[in-house]
Specification:
The chain folds into 2 domains: about 25 residues; about 60 residues, Photosystem II 12 kDa extrinsic protein (DNA polymerase, domain 1, Orthogonal Bundle), CATH 1.10.150.320. It has about 120 residues and is mainly alpha-helical. The chain is built from 4 helices and 2 strands, in the order H-E-H-H-H-E. Helices cover about 45% and strands about 5% of the residues. About 5% of the residues have low confidence. The protein is elongated and about 70 Å long.
């Protein structure tokens, strides 16, 4: 009996894992393709990045003009308004060399709603 229960649990875990892995490419396929070169991009091009609005885009350009080219995407953390979480969202879409190829805005991921954050009615 216990052996059957263990096998059932293992099968359920394997199925959940397979479904999760199958969903990852589908989610990635919805994301726009391309990168923004943070060393040459205009503020409008920087605003295509997830979570980057007008103010942050202008701060990125100002930082670049005052301090020179960004050596890596991690240097974005030197810009006020970009922290670890923001950087992780930006990294897949940021380059420090080459052309800017991102042509459409990348939506920012929404946080999952909890019971505390759900609207009250």
């Amino acid at each position: 009996m216990r052996r059957n229960l263990r096998l059932t649990r293992l099968a359920v875990l394997a199925l959940v894992g397979a479904l999760t892995l199958a969903a990852v490419p589908a989610l990635a396929a919805d994301a726009p393709a391309g990168v923004v070169n943070i060393n040459t991009a205009s503020p409008a091009e920087l605003e295509l990045l997830p979570g980057v609005g007008t103010a942050v885009a202008q701060r990125i350009v100002a930082h670049r003009e005052e301090n020179g080219a960004f050596k890596s995407a991690d240097d974005l953390m030197l810009v006020r308004g970009i922290g670890e979480k923001s950087l992780e969202r930006l990294k897949p879409y940021v380059a420090t060399s080459g052309a800017t190829t991102l042509k459409q805005s990348v939506p920012s991921p929404r946080a999952a709603r909890t019971a505390e954050s759900a609207p009250r009615g």
